[in-house]
């Protein structure tokens, strides 16, 4: 099939294509070493890129190899997601499994498995147990992504105190100075949009990417002992993923990471997405405090008031932060003593939970660990049990420290030990029918397919950074970067924009748009309820109406860091929702409604007024209503730092 001139008789090349034939991935064995290369429409995506490992106390794994056999397979499947942005995801790929063995006396064996989708390439290493090879310590994973140095990258730095909570920056790959997190979004000089990421991250350090000797290389997050991971065989690495798209907006609906994860681990039909308000933003604007005292937020009385407000607003959940012992003084320093089963004296958890149940409101519990994992794990079962006994089935967790403390040592959140801790919470929560929203999480790698009780995570700079540290472009980066790793709790819907303590750099219409542009299985309407009930009742209507579970997502327009417009169809009915956001540049977007079904829809349009501006006039908005059909095009204006939200109902 292919011609390849080789000098050694053991050299080999195997190639597979995507089902539509556009993407090709080759496995190359040359002089006993292994490489892969990827093309789309015969243009280079990655040049031959090295594979393999350094293993502590052993010879490197990836040299002196010979090909034992290889096998190809075609897979065609539509998978159904319990909740999310798309109900059905195609899992169609061609697979190549390459079985390798060392030709040296060690005779170690392993398998490389490649899957080529129409939307990208994935591969992983699978290492079976062998007589003299049972437990290994990985010193380094050598996987390269040999893209052109003139590729553009959008990145956040790795190994920083605020974890993933940084502004995205654009640079050229040749200029990458430090390790960066994945998903790492790239644009090749030939115009393809790529995202290097990983899927199914379990029991291993998270992959960051660095430029080494002019090649992008995997840099697995180290443990405090300097190694990358201790694993028992059999072991398989996460999938190394290269998403490939022809345009920036096409990239935003790449669902490979879900396809590469296993189906649900058990019956998760009990999981329900949720919209919630919270005893939360009042703390950020200084009205209330997390810690007990005169202005304590989480009191029994406040909780009941908020429950009443949630009922009036038609919102089904209420988050309560600052309810437990541990917030006094400098909570970031003192968090080592946090108690997750002891409420503050002015908060009667049993009473609040009873009151919530009587009013059909789901309480979202809160565990702020400050990264003190040892302290949290000691209490994990009893803390979850305490909530479940009180019919609290949603928990927001948080890991606000700059490092985790695990086994008495400082570890990165995204190290193997961090990954294993998060997984422990997810699995225990699943067993106890608890849904999680993890702040300061490990990044998403599609495991929500297997563990759908993990309804949301933060894992990027969210609206808590408003008040100076968020620019209007930030939310225009997210759909092309962080959100390729799954939904995010961005804490949308803050309408008290001109608050002097925490000034928000958006218009009010844009806050509604976020409920569509930033998907979250647990979606917070983050402002205080009185803001929704009185001042912005008209805008709140959209927050009330927008669903948290969609059947279908269609990206309509956008460029990385500049703007993004997306349409999503509800799973419950025929209604569609459209959200649009722009950076500091005002824009007119023509939204073609040709994705609608036949007949009339009633459009409710929440948009920036012509004189709106995120700084000068954030409250400039207009609500218009009209009948539309799929033959219509809406002419939408977005003010600087603005956006729009549209509901199309039958
Ligand atoms: C950081 C979280 O992102 C935020 O939502 C939470 O309120 C604080 N930590 C306190 O737990
Ligand atoms: Ca945070």
Helix content: 10-25%
Distance between the termini: 54 Å
Note the total helix count. 12
Arithmetic mean of pLDDT:
97
CATH topology of the largest domain: Beta-galactosidase, Chain A, domain 5
Number of E-type strands:
40
Shape: globular
Strand content: 35-45%
Q: What Rg is obtained from the alpha carbons, in whole angstroms? A: 25 Å
Main sheet record: 10 strands, antiparallel
CATH architecture of the largest domain: Distorted Sandwich
Name of the level-1 CATH class of the largest domain: Mainly Beta
Bound molecules: 1-deoxynojirimycin, calcium ion
Count of discrete domains: 3
What class, by secondary structure content? Answer: alpha+beta
**Poorly predicted segments:** 1-6
């Amino acid at each position: 099939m292919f011609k390849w001139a080789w000098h050694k008789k053991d050299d080999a090349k195997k190639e597979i294509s995507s089902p539509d034939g556009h993407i090709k991935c080759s496995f190359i064995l040359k002089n006993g070493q292994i490489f892969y290369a990827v093309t789309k429409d015969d243009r280079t995506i990655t040049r031959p890129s090295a594979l393999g490992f350094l293993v502590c106390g052993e010879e490197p794994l990836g040299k002196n190899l010979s090909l034992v056999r290889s096998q190809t397979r075609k897979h065609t499947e539509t998978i159904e997601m319990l909740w999310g942005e798309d109900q059905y995801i195609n899992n169609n790929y061609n697979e190549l499994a390459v079985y390798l063995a060392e030709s040296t006396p060690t005779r170690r064996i392993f398998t490389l498995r490649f899957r080529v989708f129409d939307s990208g390439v994935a591969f992983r290493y699978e290492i079976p147990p062998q007589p003299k090879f049972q437990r290994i310590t990985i010193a380094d994973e050598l996987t390269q992504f040999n893209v052109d140095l003139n590729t553009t990258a959008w990145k956040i730095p790795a190994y920083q105190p605020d974890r993933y909570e940084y502004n995205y920056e654009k640079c050229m790959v040749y200029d990458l100075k430090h390790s960066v997190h994945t998903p790492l979004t790239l644009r090749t000089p030939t115009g393809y949009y790529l995202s290097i990421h990983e899927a199914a991250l379990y029991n291993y350090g998270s992959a960051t990417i660095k430029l080494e000797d002019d090649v992008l290389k995997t840099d697995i997050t180290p443990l405090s002992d300097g190694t990358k991971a201790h694993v028992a065989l059999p072991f398989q690495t996460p999938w190394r993923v290269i998403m490939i798209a022809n345009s920036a907006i096409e990239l935003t609906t790449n669902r490979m990471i879900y396809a590469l994860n296993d189906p649900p681990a058990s019956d998760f039909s009990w999981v329900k997405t949720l919209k919630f308000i919270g005893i939360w933003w009042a703390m950020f604007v200084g009205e209330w405090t997390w810690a007990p005292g005169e202005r304590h937020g989480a009191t029994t009385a406040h909780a009941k008031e908020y429950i009443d407000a949630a009922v009036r607003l038609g919102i089904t959940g209420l988050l309560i932060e600052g309810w437990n012992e541990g917030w006094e003084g400098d909570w970031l320093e003192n968090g080592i003593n946090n108690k997750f089963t002891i409420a503050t004296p002015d908060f009667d958890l049993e009473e609040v939970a009873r009151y919530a149940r009587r009013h059909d409101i789901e309480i979202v519990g809160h565990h702020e660990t400050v990264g003190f994992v040892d302290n949290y794990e000691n209490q994990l079962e009893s803390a979850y049990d305490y909530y479940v006994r009180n019919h609290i089935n949603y928990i927001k967790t948080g890991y606000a420290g700059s490092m985790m403390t695990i086994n008495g040592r400082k570890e990165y959140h995204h190290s193997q030990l961090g990954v294993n801790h998060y997984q422990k919470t997810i699995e225990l929560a699943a067993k106890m029918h608890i849904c999680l929203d993890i702040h300061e999480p490990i990044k998403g790698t599609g495991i929500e397919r297997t563990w759908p009780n993990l309804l949301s995570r933060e894992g990027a700079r969210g609206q808590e950074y408003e008040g100076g540290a968020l620019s209007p472009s930030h939310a225009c980066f997210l759909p092309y970067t962080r959100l390729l790793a799954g939904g995010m709790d961005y804490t949308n819907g803050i309408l008290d924009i001109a608050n002097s303590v925490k000034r928000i750099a958006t218009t009010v219409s844009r806050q509604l748009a976020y409920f569509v542009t930033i998907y979250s299985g647990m979606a917070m309407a983050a402002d205080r309820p009185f803001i929704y009930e009185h001042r912005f009742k008209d805008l709140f209507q959209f927050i009330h109406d927008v669903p948290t579970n969609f059947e279908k997502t269609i990206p309509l327009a956008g460029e990385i860091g500049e703007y993004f417009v997306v349409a999503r169809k509800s799973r419950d009915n025929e209604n569609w929702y459209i959200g649009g956001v722009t950076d500091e540049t005002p824009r007119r977007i023509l939204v073609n409604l040709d994705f609608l079904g036949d007949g009339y829809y009633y459009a409710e349009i929440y948009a920036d007024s012509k004189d709106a501006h995120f700084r000068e006039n954030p409250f400039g908005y207009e609500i218009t209503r009209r009948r539309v059909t799929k033959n219509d095009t809406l002419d939408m204006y977005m003010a600087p730092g603005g956006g729009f939200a549209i509901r199309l109902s039958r």
